[in-house]
Amino acid sequence: MPLRIGFTGDVMLGRLVDDRQRDRPVEAVWGTVLERLRALDGLVVNLECVLSTRGRKWTRTHRPFHFRADPDWAVPALERAGVDVCALANNHVLDYGDVALRDTIDALDEAGIAHAGAGETIDEALEPAVRTIGTATDDGDEGLEVAIVSFTDNTPEYAADEESPGTARIEIDTDDPETNRLVREALDRAREADPDLLVASLHWGPNMVTEPPESFRAFGRRLIDDGVDLIHGHSAHVAQGIEVYDGSPVIYDAGDFVDDYRVDAELRNDRSFLFDLAVTPAGRPTELRLHPTEIDGCAVREASPAAAAWSRERMRERSDPFGTAFDRDGDALVLSLAE
Question: What is the CATH number of the domain that holds 120?
């Protein structure tokens, strides 16, 4: 029986979400999606904030937004949802300085939640997150070994180096020598774990853009040629189309899963999906289900019928240029990956 791994876009637990959570149960942030999340065998999110009550707002360069959540509720909330891995290579991990990034990593480590994409140095930021999904069975299956590398092209000032903490930052350019060196190093480390499934989680591109540039398509294809099984993209705050390249899905942008952001009336950044990947015990992706979601009251919810219909139509439109066609199963879109 295949295992199911969920992938989400931005999970931003700071500001108004943080305020609301002080007066409601920790699991309330997951709204009506909680049981669907808990039914998964694994869950990967882009954590778009730090988990700390310490630090000062970044002021070395202009930063209009700073995201920080209290780990006393945020970590238990991640645990209740069954989050296995947090991608940390994004443009908010240094919003409250080095101390808050360290608090975030310490909090995730203490909770047993794996992470990738940020660290005390670039060496640490390149380390993959490795998790075993599922449990041993009588048939001899020992669970699915999943390795995840995480990169961003956002916010150069947040980049880690040999002596300073920050993100695994790259240029999305297949001809850039430094990018190729960093990506190769991270993938080589991931392969040392001999994973059944290798994922690249990429926080790439500008906000409120509905389609990826050609450079992103070339970069995603290069990663798959190098052995990556799935591209988990995010950053635009809106869901972009999905491409299947050599049997591997490229989620160019998973949109926003939960936050307090202002909603664009046309682009509807409050609407997206839970991306639910079915994987055989041998590590072969066979199906990707897209369950429509929407953000309401600083919590994620199963999308209303009207919102779900809107999201399905936008996803079909945005995926059509890639030759991607979906089936329908209830509210969900279904993409078959079987050969």
Answer: 3.60.21
Residue 162 lies in a domain: yes
> Kindly report the CA angle at 161 between 65 and 200, in degrees rounded to 5?
70
Q: How many CA atoms lie within 13 A of 199 on its CB side?
A: 34
Tens digits of per-residue pLDDT, 155-206?
Answer: 999 999 999 999 999 999 999 999 999 999 999 999 999 999 999 999 999 9
> Beta partners for 87?
46, 116
Helix (H, G, I), strand (E, B) or coil at 6: strand
Compute how many other C-beta atoms are within 10 angstroms of the C-beta atom of residue 225: 11
Farthest-apart Cα atoms in the chain, separation: 56
Give the separation between CA 91 and CA 31, rounded to whole angstroms.
Answer: 26
DSSP secondary structure, 243-291, as one string: EEETTEEEES-B-EEE--PPPPTTT-TTEEEEEEEEE-TTS-EEEEEEE
When computed from its CA atoms, the radius of gyration of the chain, rounded to whole angstroms, is: 18
Q: At what angle do helices 71-81 and 97-111 cross, to 10 degrees?
A: 40
Q: Does any domain span residue 145?
A: yes
- Pairwise CA distance, residues 23 & 46, whole Å: 25
Range of the domain at 32: 3-270
DSSP 124-154: HHTPPEEEEES---TTS---EEEEEEEEE-S
State how far the Cα of 177 lies from the Cα of 200, in Å rounded to an integer. Answer: 19
How far is the C-alpha of 54 from the C-alpha of 209, rounded, in Å? 33
Contact 57, 66 (CB under 8 A): yes
Quote the pLDDT of residue 1: 86
CA distance 334 to 339: 15
pLDDT in tens, 43-98: 999 999 999 999 999 999 999 999 999 999 999 999 999 999 999 999 999 999 99
Can you give the pTM of this predicted structure?
A: 0.97
**pLDDT at residue 139, as a whole number:** 59
Per the structure, the count of domains in the chain is 1
Strand partners, 291: 274
Position 109 in a domain:
yes
- In this structure, is residue 317 part of a structural domain? no
